[in-house]
Amino acid sequence: MEIDRKELKRMAKESMSLSNPSFWIVTLVYVLMTTGVSIIADFSDGTLGLFLTIAITMYSWVVGFSYRLWAIWTVRRLEPGLGSLMEGFSVAGRVIMLESSILVRTLGWTFMMAIPAGFLLVFSMTTNLLGYFLVIGLLSIAVSIITLRYSMAAYVLADYPDLGPSYALHQSVQLTRGWIGELVKLHLSFIGWYMLCGITFGIAAIWVVPYMSATMVNFYNSINFPNMR
Known about the structure:
single chain; 10 helices
């Protein structure tokens, strides 16, 4: 199965051009709500610092979900305002449960794969360096594939919040079945934009973040609602 990445990106740019308020204003507020708040944890230490780190992580999950809501509503021409960045707090518990479940599942799979990979690493270190890097590369690819299986969960939760995190996770796995390769290609197609963000010290993220978010919404719409345009 293949997907037209150029068309997804074209549609994303079109949605961004029609957003009101402008996409860069919403993204700037989103960045300030997340990055700005996370700075607080940098000035804390000990038990308080750990507590703040956990609290800020959960807060970032909820705000990130809110930003996805804004992207979904923007792509679907529902004209969301800045207030959409607070919408995630109405289902904060479900968002935190979803993200926690994804984290636990990903760590669980990583641990399970790390055991045989560890034996291979020990063996490869006694043979040649190329084998060592090959094992590391294969483990990284496997973890990435596991992560991508859950990449649509937040979008499913946004559409069906009453069905809960478990449904969102299950549906994400079902939706991405057969589409992992296309998802990898889609993410890789943004490498140039990631590099631009690095070169501009993150300034380009004001464009790249909404661009990629809208593209991912279009991807989700195309596999979940094939007739949606």
